[in-house]
Design goal:
With 375 residues, the protein is an alpha+beta fold. It has two domains: 2-163, 2,3-Dihydroxybiphenyl 1,2-Dioxygenase, domain 1; 176-372, 2,3-Dihydroxybiphenyl 1,2-Dioxygenase, domain 1. The chain has helices at 2-13, 31-40, 82-90, 104-113, 191-201, 249-257, 272-281, 292-295, 297-301, 308-314, 358-371, and strands at residues 20-27, 45-50, 59-66, 69-76, 93-101, 118-127, 130-138, 144-149, 162-163, 176-185, 205-210, 222-228, 235-241, 261-269, 317-321, 324-330, 341-348. It binds fe (ii) ion.
């Protein structure tokens, strides 16, 4: 009974119920080639398309998927529009972290009433496969959150897109299952403002936090707070730079992305050894930590199922907390600007974010920053 009462009060408290991440839309300079990269390297499969051939003369968009992970890669067809402006300023990057809701009208109403800046009023999109209601609000930098209400839409993605039905001869799936979390970098002193945004405007709560004592090396320092929505399906860590001796990786990001934006997307797998081995063979480049990391790993995390030698060969990191352990690895940035990168993660009981790996990782990132002349 008490449990039921708690559930009820939780349900009424959650003014923004989310079913999960619907998709992530990137604005990129060449969507056809970016789609090839994500298919051949990361194993995404082409699912839908919108462009001049389908009557869209403003942009071309490729929808690529792997299990529950869905990306949309969009490129402008002319220079004088908002998509082209976004790319000119930020380079390739995430424009929209779109959230799947049952009521896009209420999501818009509740968040804008609490101070969100609306960027798209609820709009009904329709085609032969049914209808989808879409609205959107602004978050950090030029990033937005769309709310997608699918209303049992039967099409491949959204009205206006055509399904790609022929088998994808480029895609080489690697077992990536779903998005575990997506991290935003914000400016100096702005972390708490965005934590408050996710709390007050979107009904998220503080899930975990790390300060500069947890996350600092000689040069890099950052502070991070992890925000989670009511049912815990959506997690957004927010980073801000902290004072260090030299330029931190967050500052480097802000300088090249020209402001706040998505720093990394963590994608989960059930078998990180197989996934990372395949990604490496397919050309995905990972950050490497020194061999000394593995020398005292067992002392730090205790017994684990995976052979340490294999983890070392692949560069996979391990961290443990009181609930279990997790394995993770980070790619190098996937653009020439040192901005967006990916994390591959496998959770074995642990719900944390790899705090014990921060120091080794930051030192690896700093070696790359130094090579770029940005330290
Ligand atoms: Fe992460």
């Amino acid at each position: 009974m008490q449990e039921l009462a708690e559930k009820t009060s939780q349900a009424t408290a959650d003014f923004l119920p989310l079913n999960g991440t619907d998709h992530v839309e990137f604005y990129v300079a060449n969507a056809r080639q970016a789609a090839y990269y994500y298919r051949a390297a990361f194993g995404m499969q082409l699912a839908a398309y919108s462009g001049p051939e389908t009557g869209n003369h403003e942009c071309a968009s490729y929808v690529i998927q792997q299990n529950k992970i869905r990306f949309v890669l969009t490129t402008p067809l002319q220079p004088d529009n908002a998509i082209a402006q976004h790319i000119l300023r930020h380079g390739d990057g995430v424009r929209d972290i779109a959230l799947w809701v049952d009521d896009a009208e209420a999501a818009y109403r509740e968040t804008t009433a609490r101070g969100a800046r609306g960027v798209r009023k609820p709009e009904l999109l329709q085609d032969d496969s049914g209808e989808v209601l879409v609205s959107a609000i602004a978050t950090y930098g030029d990033t937005i959150h769309s709310f997608i209400e699918r209303r049992s839409y039967r099409g491949s993605f959204l009205p206006g897109y055509v399904a790609v039905t022929e088998p994808d001869r480029v895609a080489r799936p690697v077992g990536l299952k779903y998005i575990d979390h997506m991290v935003g970098n914000v400016g100096w002193g702005e972390m708490n403002q965005w934590v408050e945004f996710y709390e007050k405007v979107m009904g998220f709560r503080l899930y975990q936090h790390f300060d500069d004592k947890d996350i600092s090396t000689e040069y890099s320092a950052l502070m991070s707070k992890v925000m989670a929505n009511g049912n815990g399906r959506v997690k957004f860590p927010i980073n801000e730079p902290a004072e260090g001796r030299k330029k931190s990786q967050i500052e480097e990001y802000l300088e090249y992305y020209k402001g706040p934006g998505v720093q990394h997307i963590a994608m989960a797998t059930d078998d990180i050894v197989a996934t990372v081995a395949k990604l490496s063979r397919q050309g995905v480049e990972f950050l490497r930590v020194p061999a000394t990391y593995y020398a005292d790993l067992e002392r730090r995390v205790g017994k684990i199922d995976e052979p340490l030698g294999t983890l070392q060969d692949l560069g996979i990191l391990v961290d443990r907390d009181d609930e279990g352990y997790m394995l993770q690895i980070f790619t190098r940035p996937v653009e020439d600007r040192p901005t967006l990168f990916y994390e591959i993660i496998q959770r074995k009981g642990s719900r944390s974010f790899g705090k014990g790996n921060f120091k080794a990782l930051f030192e690896a990132i700093e070696r790359e920053q130094a090579l770029r002349g940005n330290l």
